[in-house]
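Design job #97: recover the sequence.
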């Protein structure tokens, strides 16, 4: 933004006067887009930018500062001004550096310059009346970024709210927006850039951004090409993003379902994206042995190579054949499919432990891979003396959850305690950490409140079991708990061991796991399936 001709003194005088009134003064070239030629300090103060920052993030295009929902009405306003000399006014919203939305009312006069270019000269002020009439009109916060259209969507500059939203370290020089987009949405967002470049119109849709610490944010994003070059990768784009509450609910539901899927058969859960042949660890329990980093995209070949490093030599070739990339890519082509392989892990000392890999196709573009250590009877990791059981204890997981001792039904009055017991029974002797239990029961990361609730829930469970003389069926070790499977009879165990069958009648069988069913969805379209469909088919 600079000055034209010898008008500096006039512009400065007008700008100072308007700034003192609390508004801003600006002049724009009207040539299709609204190009800032001069802006007073009042605009910078209102939005929180320095002048050079304001120009840098907008490339001088005023619409880059305008709320996406007001862009069309603002363009109509500037078109009226550009068609003939005259005056007009408009109310619209601007986006500040901190992401806040500000309502303004602008009054503009257009005139033809000696150079044959139509320009508008404007003054604008906060429109507090609009905010009072519609209190929620400024409730959103926006991320605004200037990016290149290359493969990685390199970030040139961004507002402060973008840094807060994505937890971006300002000390990092080279940032790519694609690294903050979930794998399922990257191809789609790339197509948005293609359309914005080809059509030179803003393109809007929803996607999910993930911060550097793994926190997901379901957003509506707008992509607009603000400086078109010969190639898309050299062109500059303005990207705006705001929270999409409906999409966020769907995403949180999907995360919740993933946790339930994880608890049902896996210590580590991976997402395989066929579009770019990558694997991402999306959930991990404390009992996992792989220590794969969460929410980091890794090439499938590298991930498989790392996994094979844990496999005992005699099973390496068999596991390699099971999870090679071409087989992963073909999984699910003919519809939903589940497959598994059991093998042994080996360490340098020659010790082995049984493990299972389960593959579940979610769609033609995505599959999930679950990795679980198998708890064997008499496993040295869970050492104990032989159990003497004076009671006949039966637990039912198919259908409604129930617990009985010597044929007498036991009523566990605390629903959370009942859910905790169901989770322990389902894990069949594997220890469940407090972190994993909290994620299942409250669907969140542990904090002071949920830890206190979990301790109270575990205490209530043990009191109920102790009241009926069977508290020995649950063991604890440094905060982790497990059921002692030798002490109970369970219909689910019988089915897994090939002893019993599925219950008949009353529709499709269900395994009751913490009173819920789960689903695996393609992106955010959820495909409902009973928990038995994923657990029982293994």
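Job complete. Output follows.
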């Amino acid at each position: 933004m600079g000055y034209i001709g010898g008008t500096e003194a006039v512009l400065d005088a007008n700008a100072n006067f308007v700034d003192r009134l609390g508004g801003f003064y600006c002049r724009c070239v009207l040539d299709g887009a609204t190009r800032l030629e001069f802006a007073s300090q009042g605009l910078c103060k209102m939005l929180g930018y320095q002048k050079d920052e304001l120009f840098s993030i907008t490339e001088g295009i005023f619409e880059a500062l305008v709320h996406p929902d007001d862009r069309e009405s603002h363009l109509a306003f500037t078109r009226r001004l550009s068609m003939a000399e005259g005056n007009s006014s408009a109310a619209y919203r601007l986006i500040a550096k901190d992401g806040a939305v500000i309502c303004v009312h602008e009054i503009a006069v257009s005139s033809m310059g000696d150079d044959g270019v139509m320009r508008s000269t404007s003054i604008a002020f906060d429109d507090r009346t609009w905010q009072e009439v519609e209190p929620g009109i400024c409730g959103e916060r926006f991320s605004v970024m200037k990016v290149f259209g290359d493969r990685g969507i390199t970030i040139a500059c961004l507002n402060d709210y973008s840094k807060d939203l994505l937890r971006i370290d300002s000390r990092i020089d080279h940032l790519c927006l694609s690294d903050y987009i979930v794998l399922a949405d990257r191809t789609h967002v790339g197509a948005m850039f293609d359309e914005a470049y080809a059509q030179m119109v803003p393109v809007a849709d929803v996607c999910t951004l993930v911060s550097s610490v793994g926190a997901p944010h379901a957003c509506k994003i707008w992509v607009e090409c603000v400086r078109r070059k010969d190639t898309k990768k050299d062109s500059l784009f303005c990207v705006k993003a705001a929270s999409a509450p409906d999409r966020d609910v769907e995403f949180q539901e999907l995360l919740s379902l993933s946790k339930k899927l994880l608890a049902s058969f896996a210590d580590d859960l991976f997402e395989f994206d066929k579009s770019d042949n990558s694997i991402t660890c999306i959930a991990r329990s404390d009992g996992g042995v792989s220590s794969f980093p969460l929410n980091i995209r890794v090439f499938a070949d590298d991930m498989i190579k790392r996994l094979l490093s844990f496999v005992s030599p005699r099973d390496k070739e068999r596991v390699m054949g099971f999870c090679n990339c071409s087989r992963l890519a073909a999984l699910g082509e003919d519809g939903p499919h589940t497959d598994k392989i059991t093998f042994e892990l080996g360490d340098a000392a020659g010790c082995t432990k049984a493990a299972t890999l389960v593959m579940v196709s979610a769609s033609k573009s995505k599959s999930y891979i679950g990795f679980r250590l198998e708890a064997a009877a008499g496993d040295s990791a869970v050492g104990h003396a032989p159990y003497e059981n004076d009671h006949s204890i039966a637990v039912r997981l198919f259908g409604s959850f129930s617990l009985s001792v010597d044929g007498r039904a036991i009523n566990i009055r605390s629903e959370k305690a009942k859910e905790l017991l169901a989770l322990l029974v389902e894990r069949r002797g594997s220890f469940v950490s407090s972190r994993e239990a909290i994620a299942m029961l409250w669907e969140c990361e542990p904090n002071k409140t949920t830890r206190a609730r979990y301790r109270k829930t575990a205490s209530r469970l043990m009191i109920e079991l102790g009241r009926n003389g069977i508290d020995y069926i649950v063991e604890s070790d440094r905060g982790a708990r497990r059921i002692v499977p030798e002490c109970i009879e369970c219909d689910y165990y019988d089915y897994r061991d090939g002893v019993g069958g599925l219950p008949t009648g009353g529709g499709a069988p269900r395994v009751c796991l913490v009173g819920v069913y789960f689903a695996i969805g393609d992106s955010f379209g959820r495909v409902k399936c009973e928990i038995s469909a994923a657990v029982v088919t293994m």
